[in-house]
Specification:
binds magnesium ion, binds zinc ion, OB fold (Dihydrolipoamide Acetyltransferase, E2P), 3 domains, 13 strands, Ribonucleotide Reductase Protein R1, domain 1, binds guanosine-5'-triphosphate, 23% helix, globular
Amino acid sequence: MEGLVVKSTGSWIKVRLEDGSILDCRLKGQFRIRDIKHTNPLAIGDRVDLEPDLQHGNAMITRIHPRENYIIRKATKLSKVSHIIAANLDHAYLIVTLAEPRTSTGFIDRFLVTAAGYYIPASLVFNKTDIYGPELMRQLDDLREIYQKAGYPCLAVSALDGTNIEELKMLLKGKINLFSGHSGAGKSALINAIQPGLNIKTREISEAHQKGMHTTTYAEMHMLSGGGFIVDTPGIREFGLIDFEMSEIPRCFPEMENLLPYCQYKNCTHTHEPGCAVKNALDSGEVSRLRYNSYLSILNDS
Ligand SMILES: Nc1nc2c(ncn2[C@@H]2O[C@H](COP(=O)(O)OP(=O)(O)OP(=O)(O)O)[C@@H](O)[C@H]2O)c(=O)[nH]1
Ligand SMILES: [Mg+2]
Ligand SMILES: [Zn+2]
């Protein structure tokens, strides 16, 4: 029997079978110690083989199929253990808010670098546009221009008033999609708006002031009626990059990668080299100063 891992709460794992039913499963002991670098040997999105235990109405996971891809993060920059957020993804969406809470561009860029590092296409979804005044709308336009120019599709939405929810739905159709972002950005609220009836728990208004509280505590994959899935994840405060080689970083900024053929040196790091097309593009505004500063900061950390 085969299935798809849709939720894991430690010892029990929920696996979706081909007929749509969900089975509680356990992992055969041998997997636990194999990959000690990760806190979770099994990830949401993993395809697995099962040995059913008819007597107890559950099953044992006996094999994890090779992953097409996966995305990993560390809890913080300094932490040693990493966590596989999800596997076999078609697309990663970062849910961004300019208010309540505000998502920084540093955070956005770290997320995008990680997705690019794992060859997972990524987009930005700016949520809560219903509460943006004229100043935040201006900032939204600026950010959208910067990120679209860098090669990342952007969509401005509101889970509350329904703005662009249909457009978002179309993008998600038929794919396995990841929703990530800060706690309170509205990941779960958006999934509820996209697929009414799921009734995923979202933060109560009365709890809005309680910082650091996560409403979603375990990642879970939800099925879309039009085909496809969304992985809802617990909010993250910081996006600690896993140990990329420094030489990998330039590739993870698409707008800089595109200019590399025009740099004088084919291994240009766009920092100190003469004849650097990226630095020239900074002067002309073709590459954003904001993105370049993130690039330098990430290079510096790695
Ligand atoms: N005004 C407004 N509020 C929103 C919108 N989307 C979500 N919210 C509110 O923002 C709060 C947080 O929403 P959640 O969906 O729980 O946020 P989350 O990203 O899932 O948070 P975690 O599960 O903790 O990671 C809730 O009170 C939502 O009602 C929106 O588009 N506009
Ligand atoms: Mg949530
Ligand atoms: Zn260069």
